[in-house]
Amino acid sequence: MAILAVAVVGAQGTGTGTSSTSKSSTQTKAPAAAKPKPAPKVDINTASKDDLVKAGFDAATADKVIAGRPYKSTQDLVTKKIVDAPTLKKLSSKITVPPAKKAPAKK
Known about the structure:
Elements: H1 2-12, E1 42-43, H2 49-55, H3 59-67, H4 76-79, H5 85-91, E2 95-96
Parallel strand pairs: 1-2
């Protein structure tokens, strides 16, 4: 009988009166991991084929993107029939066309 009693006490834990179903009150939570920064958007006017593929284009489409440069906006990919609208929507968080830099004013 004594062995059985020891086994029951060992299974109950520390014997503090908490049941094994209320683990959340006795366990400490690990600190939340910092969210990784999202990768910077790929400029479709200057990106290499490898960068375009990493952004989500397949190799053949990456070649079409390069051949269709320059772009004024990412919407040009649809206008120039490089990708369809649903594909652009999927890729839009990963690609960009930065605004054109203004030429200095002539004096």
